[in-house]
Amino acid sequence: MVESRVRDPGLADRGRMQIEWAERNMPVLLLIRERFQREKPLAGLRLSASLHITKETAVLARTLVAGGADVFLSPSNPLSTQDDVAAALAAEGIKVYAWKGMNEREYYNAIGAAMSHSPQVTLDDGGDLTITLHKLAMDINDDSIRYAREMTGNIDFKSMVKNIYGGTEETTTGVLRFKAMEREKTLLYPIIAVNDSYTKHLFDNRYGTGQSTWDGVLRATNILIAGKVVVVSGYGWVGRGIAARARGLGARRVIVTEVDPVRALEAVFDGFEVMPISRAAEEGDVFITATGDMRVISYETILKMKDGAILANAGHFNVEIDVDAIERNAVRRREIRPFMVEYKLPSGKVVFLLGEGRLVNLVAAEGHPSEVMDLSFANQALASEYIVRNRSRMLPAVYKLPEDLDTEIARLKLKAMGIGIDELTEEQRKYVSAWALGT
Ligand code: RBV
Prior knowledge:
The protein is of the alpha/beta class.
């Protein structure tokens, strides 16, 4: 099995303080940790995760360890690791193979390292770990597999996959990939779509990304949002959050681009302008993509933009902005500030690309704040426990976490926040479940 590898073990003390700070704001996960400590539901479980290595993920990892799991962490993105946190985790004996600024080979080496742990449960964000495992078990070969193999040696993945109880998936993009595999009957073990819990997507995707995306844009650029024209591509939960917060920061206009008529209409009724990207291109100062699809901002679109336009992506993969085309065509490339590159186009105009077109919130800032990851990672912890307890009944399909667990997470969060709510009276309960009562 591969050992831990981090950028600088000397950063451990700093990392530990970051994790402590996160713990203060993650009361639900700490409650789950207390119970895990007592009940050890994950005793002896080998668990490998591909998650952004952040202070919040550290709180989750400690919780899984409290439950008895043997945890191996690999990153979910080449640029999202917080090196101090990775150092702190390695120092406390949690296996972690991650540093900020990996190349593609190092990234898939890390995924391979996580697989060399022979996991019984996988935790994923975006699906890279699970899908690499599937490719290996199905004898599909590409660069990612060659790089992963450099770390795994000749493990027999066909039999390894048979020993996997199940996995989880954190994000929309990953869930879409797993649902496609379920449809094509290529999924080899059950997956719990954490993203589909209400206490995940309604909060993390909307309020987490809504705030952390702007945190990333501001740290990278230090521009004033007041007075700007902001273009948000995609009006799913993530786009809704980004657009709402753009307005809160004082953007002069917030334009939404969409392909889905219902979502577009919703954006209109929420008070945003909606237009095709070809037109929005000419009007925007700052462009943020949040669609989960590719080439949403094509090179053609970029050519229509104003001099000095700022481009960033908040979707899971770096495919939404055509970065390759910018790289190919630019006549000059200068890194002006960390995570902000200026490209001069043949026309003489420049555009600024943030975080290489990768998730700007995790690359240029620290990802979502702890308060919201408390909910997402409570789902991850309970999903891991659920898989262990229910593995004999689960098929290779995409599952949701049962609604009572989802509701319980919301209840615990409200309690931790000191907010009380009402309960149905017996009479009200009867009324809402009766059909015969009318006017
Ligand atoms: N995300 N994790 C963090 N602070 O650890 N921040 C964001 C963190 C997750 C979030 O749940 C989202 O679904 C996913 O990153 C996108 O890759």
